[in-house]
Design goal:
21 helices; 4 domains; 74% helix; mainly alpha; Serine Threonine Protein Phosphatase 5, Tetratricopeptide repeat
């Protein structure tokens, strides 16, 4: 005889609980149990397999017993009707319509009747919406969202929140971004039903963090892994980011010709994506500036100016200040090479003021180094020394960056000595 169906207090037959099959499967894996170990004494192994495949629903008592064995709340395994605002927020994120996303996420969080799951999702999207404008605030929101999502049995989005925490730290020029990014990838890779596009994005982010720490070989490997993982699923914006990273990496290892080719491709992909979306991305502005910096070094000053001006225009268009100081420094460098030293000092001082206001430590130190070079070019030794002393002071807790700053100081000092002595 078959198993008797459960009845409720009114004597009516109870319907099986609608569950999230992927959440059940992941919870079992997290507990380190096999199908047989999880099912023993509760249901048959085959029945549990049906639950995990979404082909059958467990009775309430069965679900409670399984949840106790997995040491989680039964509520974490339930399928919840999704608030339509979740879909709207995801679509706005995909289109990078950040202002609209911020408004919708904020309104959802203000709704006193919102479910805990939708609240956590809205907090995640609020962090995404303000990431480029307010990375410090975004970091706080993403950390809270990650904790909420993990407690609600949403490890996939929780891992993505961790990934974007790393991105916020990167924008804040915090070297711990790499550790956070690696942790996010490790969390995501143990999950079932992974999205190759998400995994590729995490690898791309890790590549950027490695470049920030001058781990160039590792960064190039991460970017290439991102291409391999995603394959044909990469969109134009993601391709642009990866080629931007490859270009920056090649530049650091002296492969300027290859870097120029990668930058050309990256700009093409990014501008095409921008034309399709109709929204300006700060990533395009950062890309144009980095390309402009390389063009300065290769003596292509006219095109370099076009790129840097485009970068500054795009930073202004999307209302993002984070990273803009680097573009101001690029323009200051260009003017110095053109012997327009008064203009060079103006651009460099603007960059210093912005980096100081935003707390961008590395950019601030680079600004003082560039200022020191410009004072040296004008023969002002006192201001040259004072500028580099300020850079050393800023980088006191970053020994590698301070070492690079010292090497730059010595190069400028030696060049200044040669000019003064005529040797």
């Amino acid at each position: 005889m078959g198993r008797r169906q459960e009845k409720n207090a009114k004597g009516r037959f109870v319907r099986g609980e609608a569950i999230n099959p992927a959440a059940l499967r992941q919870a079992r894996r997290d507990a380190g149990l096999t199908l047989a170990e999880t099912a023993e004494g509760i249901v048959s192994r085959q029945a549990l397999q049906q639950f995990e495949a979404g082909k059958a629903r467990p009775m309430p008592g069965t679900l409670q017993a399984i949840a106790r064995r997995l040491r989680i709340s039964a509520d974490a395994l339930l399928a919840r009707p999704h608030d339509p605002r979740e879909v709207m927020m995801r679509e706005l994120e995909e289109k990078q319509r950040w202002r609209e996303l911020e408004r919708l996420a904020g309104a959802t969080l203000a709704d006193l009747n919102v479910t805990p799951r939708t609240q956590a999702v809205a907090r995640f999207y609020l962090g995404r919406a303000i990431l480029n404008q307010e990375p410090e605030e975004a970091l706080r929101e993403l950390r809270r969202a990650r904790g909420q999502l993990a407690r609600l049995g949403e490890p996939w989005l929780a891992a993505e929140a961790r990934d974007w925490e790393g991105a916020a730290l990167y924008l804040l020029q915090d070297a711990t971004a790499l550790d956070v990014g690696r942790d996010a990838l490790a969390r995501y890779r143990v999950l079932a039903d992974r999205d190759p596009g998400v995994e590729a994005r995490m690898l791309e982010h890790i590549g950027s963090y490695q470049l920030q720490r001058e781990e160039v070989g590792e960064a190039l490997t991460s970017y290439r892994q991102a291409i391999d993982v995603a394959g044909s699923m990469l969109n134009l914006a993601r391709l642009a980011n990866i080629y931007h990273g490859l270009a920056s990496g090649c530049l650091r290892v002296g492969e300027s010709r290859k870097a120029l080719d990668y930058f050309d491709r990256a700009v093409h992909f990014s501008r095409t994506a921008h034309d399709v979306r109709g929204e300006v991305s700060p990533n395009l502005a950062r890309l144009e500036n980095d390309f402009g910096d390389l063009l300065i070094r290769t003596g292509r000053w006219e095109r370099a100016e076009e790129m840097i001006c485009a970068a500054l225009d795009h930073f202004a268009a999307c209302g993002v200040e984070v990273g803009r100081a680097v573009a101001l420094l690029s323009m200051g460098d260009l003017r110095a090479r053109q012997d327009r030293l008064d203009e060079a000092l103006q651009w460099t001082n603007q960059a210093i003021e912005l980096a100081d206001r935003l707390g961008e430590t590395v950019s601030l130190a680079l600004g003082y180094q560039q200022l020191g070079e410009q004072w040296a070019a004008q023969g002002d030794s006192d201001r040259f020394e004072a500028s580099f002393s300020r850079a050393f002071e800023i980088l006191a807790d970053l020994p590698e960056a301070q070492s690079e700053s010292l090497a730059r100081y010595r190069r400028v000092r030696d060049a200044q000595t040669q000019r003064q002595t005529g040797t």
